[in-house]
Each structure stands twice: as C-alpha cells, then as structure tokens.
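I had to read the description of the data format several times before I understood it. For illustration, here is how one protein appears when written out as sequence plus structure tokens:
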Amino acid sequence: MSSTPSDTADTSLSGTRLVVIACLAAWFVAAFGVSLFGLLRAGPSDLPLPIGVALMVPLVVGVLAYVLSSQFRRLLFKADLRWLIGIQLWRVAGAEFLIYYAYDKLPASFALPAGVGDVLVGLAAPFVAMIAASGTPAARRIVVGWCIAGIADLIVAVTMGVLSAPGRFGLLAGAVTTAPMLELPLSLIPAFFVPLSILLHLIVLRRSAEIGHARGVPARLGLDTLPQGS
C-alpha cells in the first residue's frame, strides 16, 4: 500500500517535531551546565558578554531556523495558536523576583518591574488565548498588543538586570545587586526562558494575521494555510 502525500508530510513533520524537542532539551541542559560551572558570570570590569551570548544565540538560531527551514515553518503554522499563547502562563513564575526582593536578595530596580510585568503577562496569557480563538474583530489587536507588552517586559527586565548588576556597568547597583540572576536556579530564566518567551511572542506575532481570518476556527490552521512559497 503506497503512502499518500499527506502521510509523507505528517511523517516529515513528526521528524521535525522530534528534532525541535531534542534541540530544546539540549538548550536547557546547556543553560543548566553553563550556570552550574559559573560561566555566566563576568568580571567586575568586563562587559556582560556571557549572559549576552546566552540570550542572543538562541534568538539568532531560532530566527535562522525559521528563515531557512520550510519544515520548521510548517510545524509552527501547524501548532495550535492558543497553545503558543497560553503556555506563557509560566511567566507568573516572575513572582519569584518579588519574593527575592522581599528577602533583600534582589534590588527593587530589577525585581519590581520584572516581577510585576511577568506576572501580569503570564496571568493574561490564558485569557488572550481564548480571545484569539474567538475570532472577533478586536482579537488580533489584543493579541498583538499582548505580544508587544510581553516582549517589552522582557527587554525592560534584561536592561534593568544589567544596570543593577555588580561591576562598572551596574549604574543602578547598590548593596543588593542582580548577581543571583547568574546563579542557579534563577540563571535559567535569562539563559533559557527569556529567549524562549521572546521566540514564542515572535511566532504569535507572525501568525496573528490568522485571527479572524476564518470565522469560528481562527486559532488552528492546517498546512494548506501556509503562505505561498513557504
């Protein structure tokens, strides 16, 4: 019995899905490893290059994978948009920054904007996912606005984290700094979860044009809805 084009496409996507899962697992292990061995810490007079590399390399690799791999693009367009939005509920873990601040282990200059911003974005995620599925005229604007707010929150958090770090670039650093952000378990946030959250926001922004395109089924598209030439 010969396989159909649909069967072949599904098999190919399953392989791509496994590769993506393996890459995510390897990325997480790498982030854990560099944190465990203290490789994210820079000297007091050095540029914060280690954490900068940890943040930027995954973003560059993710964008390149999207641009260069049609299979990766097909997988992303096959995924349920509601899931891609709702998974950012994990951002409520940013409340941990507020707990560290309460115990005088993180500075207010970083913990308050990063913690409050993450909690608000995370709590909104399930509701934004439901709004996206509704396909109402305002749904796309709400999703885009939420993504922009989510990315802005992460940019502010990273900026304040650098400015509140020990060393000559810590212009806002005082007696309490963001040094704990470069050690386990908090180091997994800038080295893994921050770039992953940004990539998810970018994917949702790329797919936001779907919302409301087909009445009643805006949140999940099949392969036939991919832009021509993808």
In short: The chain has a mean pLDDT of 88. The chain is about 65% helix and 0% strand. The radius of gyration is 20 Å. The chain has one domain: 5-216.
